[in-house]
Amino acid sequence: MSAATVPTRPLTVGFDLDMTLIDSRPGIRATYEELAAQTGTYIDAEAAVSRLGPPLDEELAYWFPAERIPEMADRYRALYPAHAVARIPAMPGAREAIEAVQALGGSAIVVTAKHEPNARLHLDHLGMRPDAVVGSLWAEAKAEALRAHGASVYVGDHVGDVRGARTAGALSVAVPTGPCSADELKAAGADVVLADLTALPAWLATYTATRGMPTPA
User: Fold this and answer.
1) Which of 51, 133, 200, 203 is deepest in the core (most CB within 10 A)?
2) Where in the chain is CATH 3.40.50.1000?
């Protein structure tokens, strides 16, 4: 079989959600403030939004005893749609990044630690149309979904996203738009660091061209 007829791996690009595709700080802050008001428990919402990335239970552990975390997680998730979704904007270039993958004939998937129904609410509200959404996966566990969908690239803002990409054997593309700096992302093993998602379509065009991936007719 000649090189020209060797089948290439279909293009699938994964994206993190919080602080990669959406700036979730205003909505998460508001939800924590409402949770604090309803429970009478002090929660430093500013501190919480400075640590976005890890699962909800990890943040709740700063404010509630272990035995109350499952209850508080359910309560937070129930409050979230009314207090968060309308407040949260897309990151610059987010919609265009997803569409750039699809314009090349590829699949764009969202793999996030966020509760999946709430993740879908954001994407619908902002008019983003990925090909699949998988929630409740963090760091290395994200590799499960990335492998299942055959993702060759994973785009995220956190060192946990870098670990997920590397565990899956995918190229790690990082954007320092969340709590982790470009230097931290590089040190964690990111293969590519872009300033933000507005740079992704041009990078993606080069990436696919140099790997001989098919483009739509």
Assistant:
1) 200
2) 9-23+90-210
